[in-house]
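Sample entry as discussed:
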Amino acid sequence: MSKPAIIVADSPLSEVNVKRWRGGVFTEAMDKIAEETPIALIYNGISHAVMLATPQDLEDFALGFSLSEGILQDKSELYDIEIVVQEQGIELRLDVATECFVNLKEKRRNLVGRTGCGLCGAESLEQALRLPSVKNTEKTTPSIHRPSRASIEKINAASIQAAFHAIQTKQVLQQATGATHACAWVNANGEVQVLREDVGRHNAMDKLMGALAKLPQKNTGFVLTSSRASVEMVQKVAVAGYNILAAISAPTGLAVRIAETYGVTLVGFLRDNQFVIYTHAQRIKT
């Protein structure tokens, strides 16, 4: 028996005919839905991972994923990206520095498994929690080897509140489909400067990190996510060198401990006129 043909989309949303039931009555309607597409990341001709992601901002995704996974240490090590639409998905063909490719091949040689939830390519439990090296292991004032992307000056609580309201108006895909997450860079005044969306929260964060890596060094600000603050989200923020992550939903216990150890201010349960600070509260002022 032949396998049924499945159409893979190369655009972020599509429309379908639906039958809507409301108040005991059926009506015919058109509904917009967010797309998820297999995205293959191929480095110097070798396939490394296939992720399910919303097919937009793919160059940002490729760069952000490569940096957060430690495949690249700097954007200058990525020479070119070719986006190739195939019948079964999209290939991101990355041309990277030889040293990065050699290291990636060595890593793959011992690869025993991977997950699709932000731990792609982990060879061991220790590698699953890959983070910058810690000079000072005191949890209160860790000194870490990571790029300084944002000032550690304090952020007003009012700015976090302003960002909470602003991000909701800027999520174009979410407003159309109700199915996507967003991650944003917010300045000290609570203004959303850069925003990326995806059906996967990790993908949205990688897209944001990729977009920010292309820009000059940022001023004081913070990262905001519409999702929960899982450990992978904290990892990506810490590896990129940002100091504050605010999440509209809850954090996990491991995410809190990672944030505490690596000097990330973690804010959760961001709602209208309220939020909870889990770590390094000194950066948030009234």
